From TrEMBL:
Cysteine disulfide partners in this protein: 27-33, 348-377, 427-449
Protein species of origin: Catharus fuscescens (Veery)
Organism taxonomic ancestry: Eukaryota, Metazoa, Chordata, Craniata, Vertebrata
Record domain TIR: where: 583-726
Name listed for the protein in its UniProt record: TLR21 protein
GO biological process: inflammatory response; innate immune response; toll-like receptor signaling pathway
């Protein structure tokens, strides 16, 4: 009995392993089991302890049962997103103590049970968004997840967050909540989490915004709000909260502002003394810049040092006011980015009050040279060190250089992707300019307009044919995507450390090019360094590919099918049926040379000496000498009432018999008649017929054939039946 029990256990185990192999082969052979997008409606049976990653995403699984994952004790990642899971047994994950990632997003879970996660002591990443639950229950489903690092929650039906829902979580690197329809938030619900590095929340209810911010003042470093319409509210955001606060960065994405709400927000956010960075991406501002500057000024100094605005949409932006009265709010700002937002100028008076600004990024806007004179007026941006004016509409390099020369501390200038077209011989630049990016500016050459103080110069993508400037301090030179045929001389740039000359037309190197300092690092492609070797390797690879294709063609009879297709196309161009006057044979006989004795000495004698005699077409006797054999076959079939196939094992091994069978089959199908007569000279085993004889297999299954009898007394009946078939 013990042996029987052991045998049954082993048999069951082998059966499960076999089932696993059939369901998802990668689970059987690897530690990383990928069964995604396979249409599965169940978790594969037979999962073992060797599996560490199980991907079952994008299937049709509806239910997770207790025993499904019981043996997968070493699982580290379990991906179940985008299924139809609506129920999970309470102890389904009980054996997964080593699990670090669990993704149950985009399923049909109507509630979350704390029992699911009770034994996931190692879990770090949990994704639950995109289900159908409306809340997290009356208590916390996550109380046992002490190692949790990232948590993704919410869905379009998620509407309530209660106190205690996050008990047990102390530290999160990332918290993401889809609260697009969140309409009830109990104050203090998020306070139980002591530290959150980055929190993203999608909310549309403006009344909840302030409550959430108050709860997160001491825990979140970076708070990101999406799709919010800011409320008109004067209630303090730091009410009853003690300093110091932790929140340092606040991001708005796809948010909606008005002149009134943005004025009030500026006032309220000043109370968060820890806030150093504000960011607005893909937002909409409905207004003309008529902000309540008096109230903003009375509210005191802002502590924000970095402002980033990307792709803000301002209806009628050309009517936007110059923000007069905001001067006192910008003198502490250090970094400002306004990109892809249709900026065409900054009033001179406002620009002069950016007294502490070190970094200014205006890329992808509408700045032109005429407005740049106003934007960079004398006394503006006095501390500016880095300026990005790329992707604007600047046309004059001489004017652009002149205006930027008004910035005494500027050392980094990016004016790439402006269409200058021309470059003068002399330009006026900032005295301390070290970095200049002139890539993709359509300049036809480089002249002494380029400042000699540079340490880094980028003139890539300008179709330059030569480079011969004297730049004694230059350390990095980027000449990618030009038309250079020789390297720049080493003597004029003695301190060069980095030189990029990719995608040029270099074909020779002069001795002068290498008379400078030793080259530390050169990054050249294999083609540039070893062209002949690369060409040889390519030729060898092409030869091997051709050899492989020939082998595959031989193995899969591809040549056979190509030849067959060509012959078929030739046949299709001819009339489907020869005119009656051209039909001169009763039958064309298709047979193997190995069966010629029976055909020529038995069948031909019987039929051609009958009364009346039958006229047969034989390839040995009746084919036209010198004519291509395929044309002979086609013509003979077309000039015959019938095609008579003498089938044997020799026949199915003959290539030409295959052609004759196919051409007859085309005619049979084209005219929908009974042109083919089959004679089975000997029994043929199905496994003897090659796979390429698919038409023969089909004909033998659909048409009646005559079988040559071994007994002499039955042969008379065979001849009568054959003659009758030929006359029909």
């Amino acid at each position: 009995w013990q042996m029987l029990a052991i045998y049954m256990v082993l048999a069951a185990s082998l059966s499960k392993q076999q089932a696993l192999k059939q369901t998802c082969a990668s689970c059987y052979a690897s530690q990383h089991c990928n069964c995604s997008s396979m249409g599965l409606d169940f978790i594969p049976p037979g999962l073992t302890a060797k599996i560490t990653v199980l991907n079952l995403a994008h299937n049709r699984i509806k239910h997770i049962q207790s025993q499904d994952l019981q043996q997968a004790v070493n699982l580290r990642a379990l991906l179940l997103q985008s299924n139809k899971i609506s129920s999970i047994d309470e102890d389904s994950f009980q054996s997964l103590a080593k699990l670090e990632l669990l993704d149950l997003s985009n399923n049909s879970l109507a509630h979350l049970s704390p029992l699911w996660f009770g034994h996931l002591f190692s879990l770090q990443h949990l994704h639950l968004q995109g289900n159908s639950y409306r809340d997290l229950g009356q208590s916390s489903p996550f109380s046992g997840l002490r190692n949790l690092s990232s948590l993704h929650l919410g869905n379009p039906w998620f509407s309530v967050i209660r106190q205690g829902n996050f008990e047990g979580i102390e530290l999160l690197h990332k918290l993401w909540i889809d609260g697009s329809n969140l309409n009830q938030y109990e104050q203090g619900s998020l306070k139980s989490i002591k530290e959150i590095n980055h929190m993203i929340i999608n909310i549309r209810d403006s009344n909840i915004f302030s409550e959430i911010v108050r709860d997160l003042l001491h825990s979140v470093s970076w708070l990101e709000m999406t799709e919010i319409k800011l409320p008109v509210e004067k209630k303090s955001l730091v009410q009853n909260s003690t300093r110091p606060f932790r929140i340092q960065k606040l991001t708005f994405k796809e948010a909606f502002f008005t002149d009134e709400t943005i004025s009030q927000a500026i006032v309220l956010l000043k109370e968060i003394t820890s806030l150093k960075e504000l960011e607005a991406i893909n937002c909409v501002l409905e207004g003309k810049g008529i902000w309540n500057t008096e109230e903003i000024s009375r509210s005191g100094q802002s502590f924000v040092e970095t402002v980033t605005i990307i792709k803000i949409i301002i209806q009628n932006f050309h009517l936007f006011f110059d923000l007069e009265g905001m001067e006192s709010q910008i003198n502490k700002l250090k970094r400002l980015t306004i990109a892809s937002s249709n900026v065409f100028m900054v009033p001179c008076n406002l620009a002069r009050h950016f007294s502490s600004l070190l970094y200014l990024d205006f890329h992808d806007n509408l700045l032109v040279n005429k407005r740049l004179d106003e934007t960079i007026c004398k006394g503006s941006w006095p501390s500016l060190q880095t300026l990005n004016l790329s992707q604007n509409s600047l046309k004059s390099l001489e004017q652009t250089a002149k205006y930027t020369s008004r910035l005494p501390k500027l050392n980094n200038l990016d004016i790439s992707q402006n269409n200058f077209g021309e470059i003068p011989d002399v330009c006026e630049w900032p005295e301390n300019l070290k970095y200049l990016n002139l890539s993709s500016t359509q300049i036809p050459k480089v002249t002494t307009c380029i400042p000699p103080t540079l340490e880094v110069l980028d003139v890539s993508a300008n179709n330059l044919k030569e480079f011969g400037l004297q730049l004694p301090f230059l350390k990095e030179l980027y000449l990618t995507r030009n038309q250079l045929k020789t390297l720049p001389g080493a003597a004029p740039i003695p301190n060069l450390v980095v030189l990029s000359v990719r995608r040029n037309k270099l074909n020779s190197f002069s001795k002068e090019a290498f008379e400078g300092a030793l080259v530390d690092t050169v990054h050249l492609s294999m083609m540039e360094c070893h062209r002949s070797l690369v060409v040889s390797l390519i030729c060898v690879l092409v030869f091997l590919v051709i050899l492989l294709l020939v082998a595959i063609s031989y193995k899969c009879h591809i040549v056979w099918y190509l030849r067959m297709m060509w012959a078929w196309l030739q046949a299709k161009r001819k009339p489907k049926r020869a005119p009656p006057k051209d039909v001169c044979y009763d039958a064309f006989v298709s047979y193997s040379e190995n069966d010629s004795d029976w055909v020529e000495n038995t069948m031909v004698r019987e039929l051609e000496q009958a009364c009346p005699p039958f006229r047969l077409c034989l390839h040995k006797r009746d084919f036209v000498p010198g004519k291509w054999i395929v044309d002979n076959i086609i013509d003979s079939i077309e000039k015959s009432h019938k095609t008579l196939f003498v089938l044997s094992e020799h026949f199915v091994q003959s290539e030409w018999c295959k052609y004759e069978l196919d051409f007859s089959h085309f005619r049979l199908f084209d005219e929908n008649n009974d042109a083919a007569i089959l004679i089975l000279l000997e029994p043929i085993q199905s496994n003897v017929i090659p796979k390429r004889f698919c038409k023969l297999r089909k004909i033998m299954n659909t048409k009646t054939y005559l079988e040559w009898p071994a007994a002499e007394e039955q042969q008379e009946m065979f001849w009568e039946n054959l003659k009758g078939a030929l006359k029909s």
